[in-house]
């Protein structure tokens, strides 16, 4: 399957409890022109045994298994997977989720429609809603977007402070992969950085129906809990650092107004107290929702 149309990028780490259910859900996909590209992040349980057993059963479905032994964390592990990928359509995959049978088909079809409209050279991303369940697959909420209060049709500027794109619910094209990766060290997360790049230089299309079960449990690196004021100041620092990296990588491609806006976000980490609040108000660096902005001004 040298010309496979979709590569599913799976980063694993001590996932023996969850992997069989995920892999079974991939096997049930209605669209079968896909391969799995896997990187293990230094597992010490039975994860590798499960993967090798699956490889033996479905050798034609494995594009590669990257085993460098390093524990990089999900952000850099997924970056390595994107760098190793070759397919025109890529999808991030978490080891503890369960994909609905139509996920690959619907997201691939939506991405191809975007390419027909905007061209294959434009960085394009589609993403869907998610059903949140607990570790025993007990329903928590039928809409992750509603639960988090996401306004998914947001302007590109909003992605500097907000992220409404969940990695395991995305599909993106080769142009997006080439522009956004390798991931900068100070990118907040692989999905957040990818969404930021696609929002500014391409297109993002939300698909309103959930296409997977998103499992919320104690081992989630980043879960589905609503954001709180705790750690807000640290998140502002992270937004600022990411904006600075964005400016250094893409500054020459921005017009004067956009450059000034990104520079304003990048400058937040150098300010404290009232000066930071003045800066936020002056440059209108607001998040989604009135309460979020009140919290931003009070606790950032």
From TrEMBL:
Tell me, what's a Pfam family for it? Answer: Glycos_transf_2
Q: Which InterPro entries match?
A: Glyco_trans_2-like, Nucleotide-diphossugar_trans
What region holds the Glycosyltransferase 2-like domain?
8-117
What keywords are assigned to this protein? Transferase
Q: Specify whether Transferase is a keyword of the entry.
A: yes
Please provide, alphabetically and separated by semicolons, the GO molecular function terms listed in this UniProt record. Answer: hexosyltransferase activity
What sections of the sequence does the record tag as coiled-coil? none
PANTHER family from the UniProt entry? GLYCOSYLTRANSFERASE, UDP-GLCNAC:BETAGAL BETA-1,3-N-ACETYLGLUCOSAMINYLTRANSFERASE-LIKE PROTEIN 1
Name-wise, this protein is: Glycosyl transferase family 2
Organism (species): Thiothrix caldifontis
Taxonomy of the source species = Bacteria, Pseudomonadati, Pseudomonadota, Gammaproteobacteria, Thiotrichales
């Amino acid at each position: 399957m040298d010309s496979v149309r979709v590569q599913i990028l799976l980063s694993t780490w001590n996932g023996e409890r969850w992997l069989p259910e995920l892999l079974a859900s991939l096997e049930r996909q209605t669209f079968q022109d896909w391969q799995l590209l896997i990187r293990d992040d230094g597992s010490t349980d039975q994860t590798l045994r499960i993967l090798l057993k699956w490889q033996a059963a479905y050798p034609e479905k494995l594009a590669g298994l990257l085993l460098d032994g390093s524990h990089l964390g999900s952000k850099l592990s997924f970056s390595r997977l994107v760098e190793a990928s070759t397919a025109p359509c890529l999808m991030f995959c978490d080891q503890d989720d369960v994909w609905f049978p139509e996920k690959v088909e619907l997201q691939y079809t939506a991405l191809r429609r975007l390419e027909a409209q905007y061209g294959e050279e434009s960085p394009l991303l589609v993403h869907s809603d998610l059903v949140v369940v607990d570790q025993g697959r007990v329903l928590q909420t039928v809409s992750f977007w509603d639960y988090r209060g996401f306004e998914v049709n947001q302007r590109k500027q909003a992605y500097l402070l907000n992220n409404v794109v969940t990695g395991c619910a995305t599909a993106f094209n080769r142009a997006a992969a080439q522009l956004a990766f390798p991931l900068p060290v100070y990118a907040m997360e692989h999905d957040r950085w990818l969404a930021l790049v696609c929002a500014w230089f391409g297109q993002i299309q939300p698909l309103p129906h959930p296409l997977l079960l998103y499992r919320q449990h104690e081992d989630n690196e980043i879960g589905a809990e609503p954001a709180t004021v705790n750690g807000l100041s640290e998140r502002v620092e992270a937004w600022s650092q990411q904006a600075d990296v964005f400016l250094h990588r893409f500054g020459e491609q921005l017009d004067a107004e956009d450059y000034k806006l990104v520079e304003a976000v990048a400058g937040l980490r150098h300010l404290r107290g009232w000066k930071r609040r003045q800066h936020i108000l002056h440059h209108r660096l607001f998040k989604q929702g009135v309460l979020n902005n009140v919290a931003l001004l009070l606790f950032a």
